[in-house]
Amino acid sequence: MIESWVINDDGPVPVLSAGVVEALRPRIASGQFETWLTSSSGRLLAFVTNAERAMVVLLEGEDDPGEHAVDPGAAGSSDGFILSNGQGDEYPDEDTVPIREAFRIVEHIIGTGSWPADACWVVDR
Known about the structure:
Structural class: alpha+beta
Low-confidence stretches: none
Distance between the termini: 25 Å
Helix content: 10-25%
Oligomer: single chain
Order of helices and strands: EEHEEEEEEEHE
């Protein structure tokens, strides 16, 4: 069975892989830099951005440390990752990916349930 996904604060309407980027863009434009999606099997997908880079985290459930997309060899860090509680975070660039890559990863996970074969990620468990 293929999972269905919803954006947590957008109600029960499933988001499709072909439409997830179009759902994320206006949220970012309005200052919502943190988005959580939940799958029908209970998995969680976090997308936190500063509009240039994004942290993408896939969790098997609420207590799972999960796994996240990485940009091996990226130097420095970026700030401006504003969480829904107003907290501003800074992350090493190697723990985030360019926003275009993040969109591609999220779209693939929503469509297939797994990371793209050519994406880099680390397991935090």
